[in-house]
Amino acid sequence: MAGQNYYPGQYEFQCLHGMGEPLYEQVVGSIASGKLNRPSRIYAPVGNHKTLLAYLVRRLLENGANPSFVNRIADKEIKIAELIAHPIAQVEALAKEEGTLGLPHPKIALPRDIFGEGRRNSADIDLS
What we know:
This protein is mainly α and 128 residues long. The chain is built from five helices and two strands.
């Protein structure tokens, strides 16, 4: 998305107010200064305390995870090439390592097994 074939109106990034300023500056800065010069909207959630707290907890859970881009960008130990690696290339590399593409994760139950052995979930459809 950040390639050279961008045209205005194609897309925009969004940034939660008060979060990710260094990344925001890279996105909106001028091309002459080595930045992307892409539109980015800063937004703030609106609501009462109860709904805002739930929203912020969800964002923290999403962005606070160790493998998240937002978390990893500040880690000086991570090489840029690793940080910007294409996710499909990463999946293909894992497929070569494991011998097949799309192995189920051993710690994530299949849909039919979500409720445990005492109760079968409805039949799932394998779309892979």
